[in-house]
Protein backbone atom coordinates (compact mmCIF):
# COMPACT_ATOMS: atom_id res chain seq x y z
CA UNK A 1 0.00 0.00 0.00
CA UNK A 2 2.82 2.39 0.90
CA UNK A 3 4.50 1.59 -2.36
CA UNK A 4 1.41 2.61 -4.35
CA UNK A 5 1.08 5.82 -2.34
CA UNK A 6 4.76 6.72 -2.88
CA UNK A 7 4.41 5.94 -6.59
CA UNK A 8 1.38 8.22 -6.83
CA UNK A 9 3.15 11.05 -4.97
CA UNK A 10 6.24 10.66 -7.19
CA UNK A 11 4.10 10.71 -10.34
CA UNK A 12 2.14 13.77 -9.19
CA UNK A 13 5.37 15.58 -8.27
CA UNK A 14 6.91 14.74 -11.65
CA UNK A 15 3.81 16.03 -13.44
CA UNK A 16 3.85 19.30 -11.48
CA UNK A 17 7.56 19.79 -12.18
CA UNK A 18 7.05 19.06 -15.89
CA UNK A 19 4.13 21.48 -16.24
CA UNK A 20 5.96 24.18 -14.25
CA UNK A 21 9.11 23.75 -16.34
CA UNK A 22 7.10 24.00 -19.55
CA UNK A 23 5.37 27.19 -18.32
CA UNK A 24 8.70 28.74 -17.32
CA UNK A 25 10.21 27.87 -20.71
CA UNK A 26 7.25 29.48 -22.51
CA UNK A 27 7.60 32.64 -20.41
CA UNK A 28 11.37 32.84 -21.00
CA UNK A 29 11.01 32.76 -24.80
CA UNK A 30 7.99 35.11 -24.76
CA UNK A 31 9.89 38.23 -25.87
CA UNK A 32 7.97 39.12 -29.04
CA UNK A 33 6.77 42.74 -28.86
CA UNK A 34 2.98 43.05 -28.55
CA UNK A 35 3.02 46.05 -30.92
CA UNK A 36 4.81 46.81 -34.19
CA UNK A 37 5.06 50.33 -35.55
CA UNK A 38 4.44 50.69 -39.26
CA UNK A 39 4.71 54.48 -39.44
CA UNK A 40 4.91 57.58 -37.28
CA UNK A 41 4.68 61.18 -38.46
CA UNK A 42 3.95 64.71 -37.32
CA UNK A 43 0.80 66.14 -38.90
CA UNK A 44 2.15 69.70 -38.57
CA UNK A 45 5.92 69.86 -38.65
CA UNK A 46 6.37 73.17 -36.80
CA UNK A 47 5.28 74.46 -33.40
CA UNK A 48 6.30 76.99 -30.78
CA UNK A 49 7.53 76.20 -27.26
CA UNK A 50 4.39 75.57 -25.20
CA UNK A 51 2.46 74.68 -28.36
CA UNK A 52 1.24 71.28 -29.46
CA UNK A 53 2.24 68.87 -32.16
CA UNK A 54 -0.19 66.32 -33.58
CA UNK A 55 1.41 62.89 -34.04
CA UNK A 56 -0.07 60.03 -36.07
CA UNK A 57 0.91 56.40 -35.56
CA UNK A 58 0.11 53.32 -37.62
CA UNK A 59 0.59 50.15 -35.60
CA UNK A 60 -0.18 46.46 -35.54
CA UNK A 61 -1.17 45.12 -32.12
CA UNK A 62 -0.53 41.40 -31.80
CA UNK A 63 -1.89 41.20 -28.27
CA UNK A 64 -2.82 43.39 -25.34
CA UNK A 65 -0.46 43.51 -22.34
CA UNK A 66 0.06 45.89 -19.42
CA UNK A 67 2.37 48.71 -20.47
CA UNK A 68 4.38 51.55 -18.97
CA UNK A 69 4.84 54.34 -21.51
CA UNK A 70 7.62 56.90 -21.33
CA UNK A 71 7.40 59.84 -23.72
CA UNK A 72 10.29 62.12 -24.60
CA UNK A 73 11.02 65.20 -26.68
CA UNK A 74 14.68 65.69 -27.63
CA UNK A 75 15.37 69.32 -28.56
CA UNK A 76 18.15 70.90 -30.63
CA UNK A 77 20.23 71.64 -27.51
CA UNK A 78 20.36 67.94 -26.69
CA UNK A 79 17.96 68.23 -23.75
CA UNK A 80 15.57 65.36 -23.10
CA UNK A 81 12.14 66.58 -21.93
CA UNK A 82 9.62 64.22 -20.35
CA UNK A 83 6.12 64.49 -21.79
CA UNK A 84 3.24 63.91 -19.35
CA UNK A 85 1.61 60.51 -19.63
CA UNK A 86 -1.27 60.01 -22.01
CA UNK A 87 -4.06 57.91 -20.54
CA UNK A 88 -5.03 54.94 -22.67
CA UNK A 89 -8.47 53.40 -22.22
CA UNK A 90 -9.18 49.74 -21.70
CA UNK A 91 -10.87 49.37 -25.11
CA UNK A 92 -7.70 48.41 -27.00
CA UNK A 93 -8.05 45.52 -29.42
CA UNK A 94 -5.55 43.48 -31.36
CA UNK A 95 -5.09 44.27 -35.06
CA UNK A 96 -4.16 47.23 -37.24
CA UNK A 97 -4.78 50.69 -35.88
CA UNK A 98 -4.12 54.31 -36.82
CA UNK A 99 -4.35 56.83 -34.02
CA UNK A 100 -3.35 60.41 -33.24
CA UNK A 101 -2.03 62.10 -30.11
CA UNK A 102 -1.56 65.79 -29.32
CA UNK A 103 1.76 66.38 -27.61
CA UNK A 104 2.49 69.59 -25.71
CA UNK A 105 6.01 70.88 -26.31
CA UNK A 106 7.60 72.14 -23.05
CA UNK A 107 8.13 75.90 -22.84
CA UNK A 108 11.77 75.21 -21.92
CA UNK A 109 12.46 73.35 -25.19
CA UNK A 110 15.15 74.91 -27.39
CA UNK A 111 14.33 76.41 -30.78
CA UNK A 112 15.31 74.23 -33.75
CA UNK A 113 14.93 70.63 -34.92
CA UNK A 114 13.42 68.22 -32.40
CA UNK A 115 12.16 64.68 -32.20
CA UNK A 116 9.48 62.93 -30.20
CA UNK A 117 9.66 59.27 -29.23
CA UNK A 118 7.81 56.83 -27.04
CA UNK A 119 9.39 53.97 -25.08
CA UNK A 120 6.88 51.23 -24.23
CA UNK A 121 7.70 48.62 -21.60
CA UNK A 122 5.37 45.62 -21.78
CA UNK A 123 4.98 42.95 -19.10
CA UNK A 124 3.03 40.18 -20.79
CA UNK A 125 3.81 37.46 -18.24
CA UNK A 126 4.90 37.19 -14.59
CA UNK A 127 8.51 36.37 -15.46
CA UNK A 128 8.88 39.68 -17.31
CA UNK A 129 8.01 41.47 -14.07
CA UNK A 130 11.07 39.82 -12.50
CA UNK A 131 13.56 39.79 -15.39
CA UNK A 132 12.50 42.98 -17.15
CA UNK A 133 9.86 43.98 -19.66
CA UNK A 134 9.80 43.72 -23.42
CA UNK A 135 10.77 47.21 -24.64
CA UNK A 136 9.50 48.80 -27.85
CA UNK A 137 10.73 52.21 -29.03
CA UNK A 138 8.61 54.15 -31.51
CA UNK A 139 10.12 55.55 -34.69
CA UNK A 140 11.30 59.12 -34.07
CA UNK A 141 8.81 61.81 -35.06
CA UNK A 142 10.77 64.79 -36.32
CA UNK A 143 9.49 68.37 -36.16
CA UNK A 144 10.82 71.90 -35.71
CA UNK A 145 10.35 74.19 -32.72
CA UNK A 146 10.06 77.75 -34.03
CA UNK A 147 10.27 81.08 -32.15
Helix content: 10-25%
Structural class: alpha+beta
How far is it from the N-terminal to the C-terminal residue, by CA? 88 Å
Secondary structure: number of strands: 9
Give me the strand/helix succession.
Answer: HEEEEEEEHEE
Overall 3D shape: elongated
Instruction: Write down the Rg.
Output: 23 Å
> Overall pLDDT, averaged?
84
SS field, number of helical segments: 2
Low confidence ranges: none
Biggest sheet layout:
6 strands, mixed
Content of β-strand: 35-45%
Explain how this protein is built.
The longest helix has 28 residues, at 2-29. With 147 residues, the chain is of the alpha+beta class. The strands form two sheets. Strands 2, 4, 5, 7, 8 and 9 form a six-stranded mixed sheet that branches. It has a three-stranded antiparallel sheet with strand order 1-3-6, with no helix packed on it. It contains two helices and nine strands, in the order αβββββββαββ. Helices cover 23% and strands 42% of the residues.
Quick structural overview:
23% of the residues lie in helices and 42% in strands. It is α+β, with helices and mostly antiparallel strands.
SSE blueprint and pairings:
Elements: H1 2-29, E1 35-42, E2 46-47, E3 52-61, E4 67-74, E5 80-83, E6 95-104, E7 112-122, H2 126-131, E8 134-137, E9 141-145
Parallel strand pairs: 2-9
Antiparallel strand pairs: 1-3, 3-6, 4-5, 4-7, 7-8, 7-9
Kindly list the characteristics that best describe this protein.
alpha+beta; elongated; 9 strands; about 150 residues; 2 helices
Amino acid sequence: MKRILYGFIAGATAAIVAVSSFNMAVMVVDREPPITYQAARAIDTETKPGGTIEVEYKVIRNRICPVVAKRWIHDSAGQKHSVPQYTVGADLTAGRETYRRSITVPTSAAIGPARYEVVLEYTCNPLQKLLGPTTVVSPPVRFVIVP
